[in-house]
Structures are given as C-alpha cells and as structure tokens.
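FAQ: What does the model actually see?

It sees only this:
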Amino acid sequence: MANQDFIAFIHQKLKPGGYFHFATDGEDYALWVLRLMANDLRLRRIDAFNIDRAPTKFAQTGIKAGRKIWDLVL
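And it is asked to produce this:
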C-alpha cells in the first residue's frame, strides 16, 4: 500500500473526532511516520505523553532491549 493510500485508508476508517494511535520502538520509523502524517492537513498531532496503557509484548521486547517506545497520536 502506497503512503497516500495508507493515509486515505486511515481517514476512511476514522470517525469525526477520532484519533490514530501509532506506537513503535523504532525512532527512525516513528519520525518518518510523523513527517508523512504532518504533510496531510486533515490530521493534527495530539501531544500524548504518559499514555496509560499496558505495554504490548512487542513494546516489552523493545524496552528490554533499551529502546524507547514512541507513541504518536493524530
């Protein structure tokens, strides 16, 4: 799926006032997604610090490896 197709898919699935939550332990990947989404004027970034959720097994693996978990909410 191309970048623009992915963004269109997200918009199609979001309800008015809804949000897209993206989490990864890859800093480069997180920054790439943030830049990709920032170019779409229909989305706005919500600063989401201290997200209250249980870490997934993938997040736990990243944390154990010393990587930061990046939570992006748009």
